Amino acid sequence: MQNDWLEQVEKDIAPKKINELNHIIAEHIQYPAIAFFDDKKHPYIGLNKNSADWKITHELSVNDINTSNKIALEALKHGAESLIFQINKSLEENEIKSLLSGIELDWIETNFIFSNNLSIDDISTFENHIKKIFPESSKATINYYSKNTNQHTSYFEFEYLNDDEKNYEIWAKTILSIFEQKAIQKIFINFKGRSSFIWNIVQLRSLQLIIDRLCEIEAIEELDFDIHFSVDNEYINSNPHQNMIGLTNIGMSGILGGADSISLAIDHEHESDNIWILSSIHLQYILKEEAKLNKVIDPVKGSHGIESMTDELCIKLWNYIQLISGQK
User: Fold this and answer.
1) Domain 48-324 maps to which CATH number in 2.170.120.30, 2.10.109.10, 2.60.40.1120, 3.20.20.240?
2) 20 to 30 A from 201, CA-CA: which of 101, 168, 305, 323?
3) How far apart are CA 59 and CA 264, in angstroms?
4) pTM
5) How does pLDDT run across 201-249, given as a tens digit for each residue?
6) What is the pLDDT of residue 238?
7) How far apart are CA 210 and CA 78, in angstroms?
8) Are strands 187-193 and 155-158 parallel, antiparallel or unpaired?
9) By C-alpha distance, which of 136, 68, 130, 122 is closest to 97?
10) Going by C-beta distance under 8 Å and a sequence separation of 6 or more, which residues neighbour residue 110?
11) 301 pLDDT higher than 90
12) How does 118-147 read in b/e, with b if 16+ C-beta sit within 10 Å?
């Protein structure tokens, strides 16, 4: 059915082919005329890897083991589809067992992100403990990421861009560092959004477009990366009900920007309180099940304002990338 429709579109716009309508932003960066081509004849895909869906995720920093376990179980009870554990110190086997007690790792996606003070050996030891405690768990649902930039890293963080030109240079360097990996593996990219609805969308879209085009340049057929959208902590309101109002706006921008997973900020002084956990997750279910934002592929495509801003940001970042890589 899709092929029939595409053939009809090509007839309607004859004599031009669809791929001749692509909008060029800069060298190697372009928008396809129609997002979501997913066949050999039309190898053009939209943002968010052919899907309008996103994983509802709960993120927590592991400090007190029992509290962290309680929070994780509450999050799953309220409908979280994915968990992110921020690991800040080495954990013994019994601590890991307590942390993950009651969590079925074979079906819930579980991501462990290790701080930059933990070594590769620390991560390997942690992974061996997981294998010993949960020998039947699927590797496909468990991911390990390191923030340690002095070693092989698979975690990359992008702070919100403001008027400081230095931030654009940092973005460009971080993007290039993704492609400096000796062995490309699964990459976790965390973007921290703020209250500017449109600018969040533009930054997310630009980031994905540039990574995709660099993959083409580097002849990487498929880079396994997920872009996670989180909220800058300074935008947390101490009142959980008011927090929901603000996070609805910010969370929606992450969805429209094409993030693969989203976690919404909660007040860490009350992170174990049920109302905070519930609101963080149920807000996303409202956007998914009631607003149906997961049913529309690339909904902001065609918006002149957003695409113009994305053009400008892509060109600016691309210039920095070329300068840093010595191409200018």
Assistant:
1) 3.20.20.240
2) 323
3) 8
4) 0.83
5) 999 999 998 998 888 888 887 788 889 999 887 777 777 777 777 888 8
6) 72
7) 36
8) parallel
9) 130
10) 82, 83, 85, 100, 103, 141, 142, 143
11) no
12) beeebbebbeebbeeebeebeeeebbbbbb
Task: Compute φ and ψ for 36, nearest 5 degrees.
Answer: 70, 50
267 vs 99: which has the higher pLDDT = 99
CA distance linking residue 160 with residue 235, whole number of Å: 12
| Both structure tokens of 41 | 């004849």
Mean pLDDT across 253-264: 91
Candidates 299, 317, 121; CA nearest to 208 is 317
In this structure, what token pair is assigned to residue 301?
Answer: 């495509």
Please compute the mean of the pLDDT values over residues 25-48 and round it to a whole number.
Answer: 51
Residue type, 200: N
Q: Which two tokens stand for residue 129?
A: 């403990």
**The amino acid at 309:** M
CA distance 283 to 286: 5
Structure-token pair, residue 15: 């004599």
Instruction: Locate 103 and state its tokens.
Output: 């969590």
For the chain, what are the domain ranges?
Answer: 1-45, 48-324
Is the pLDDT reported for residue 46 higher than 50?
Answer: no
* 46 or 226: which leads in pLDDT: 226
